[in-house]
Design brief:
alpha/beta, 8 helices, about 240 residues
Length: about 240
């Protein structure tokens, strides 16, 4: 079970429409799905949300098992200013440190859709501190993926411990949520999956998920959890409709 803090890039760059409908909305849809997957994976799993842009990074929701709180806070985020990754990650680490259940593994998920302003050496120093404190990090890079590649590669290399951290780079075109569902970020440590393995088609193709026979769509048994199965289906269908317009 994990305690996860998701860091949102709500900078002015997130207004761009190169990811449908905008970088910010594509990111918000992906965060909602990820929070749903993580809280579904284990009854004691918790998810918090932090915004990285504006006057200062802000924790909007401290880690909670209540998916509703996460979904609600995502509708209140304002786009503002530039992204401050270094401060945000250190605040996220503090939120993890003060988690109520110390048995939970710690993870930060960072969405980056704007140029990283920090120097590579500074990012590596922060990454080493996270690794020392047993914090795993997943990074989703989109929108400014080419110019950020070198810095984020160095950050990931420094923070990675036995394959517990991942960098997923998403070019414009595919639906962000679709790509992430088939990525290691959704599969969880050890690739066991949050019930998403074999879910929606990887590269943003039109195909809905669901294997034949034994596989449920999105890996969620609609008889066991009809509300989650419906919410996931509706969310992805809305995303595809927007993509096809």
């Amino acid at each position: 079970m994990e305690c996860t803090v998701v860091c949102i890039d709500n900078s002015e760059y997130s207004r761009s429409g190169d990811y449908a409908p905008t970088r910010f909305q594509a990111q918000a849809d992906a965060v909602n799905l990820l929070a749903g997957a993580k809280t579904q994976a284990h009854p004691e799993a918790t998810v918090g949300v932090l915004t990285m842009s504006g006057k200062t990074p802000r924790v909007l929701v401290t880690p909670t098992p209540d998916l509703g709180k996460v979904l609600n806070c995502m509708t209140t985020i304002e786009i503002d200013g530039e992204c401050n990754i270094s401060s945000s990650v250190q605040i996220a680490q503090l939120a993890l440190k003060h988690r109520q259940n110390k048995n939970q593994r710690q993870r930060i998920v960072i969405f980056v859709c704007s140029p990283v302003t920090e120097e590579k050496d500074k990012l590596v120093k922060i990454a080493k501190k996270l690794k020392k404190n047993n914090v795993a990090v997943d990074v989703v890079s989109f929108g400014a993926e080419d110019e950020n590649q070198e810095k984020l590669d160095a950050f990931l290399e420094a923070v990675n411990s036995n394959g517990n951290s991942h960098l997923v780079t998403v070019p414009p075109g595919p639906v962000l949520s679709d790509v992430l569902i088939s990525s290691p970020i959704f599969q969880g440590e050890g690739g066991g999956g949050y019930g998403f393995a074999g879910g929606a088609g990887g590269g943003g193709g039109g195909g809905g998920g669901g294997g034949g026979g034994d596989g449920f769509e999105f890996g969620v048994d609609p008889n066991m959890d009809p509300e989650l199965a419906l919410a996931l289906r509706v969310s992805l269908e809305e995303e595809r409709d927007r993509q096809n317009r």
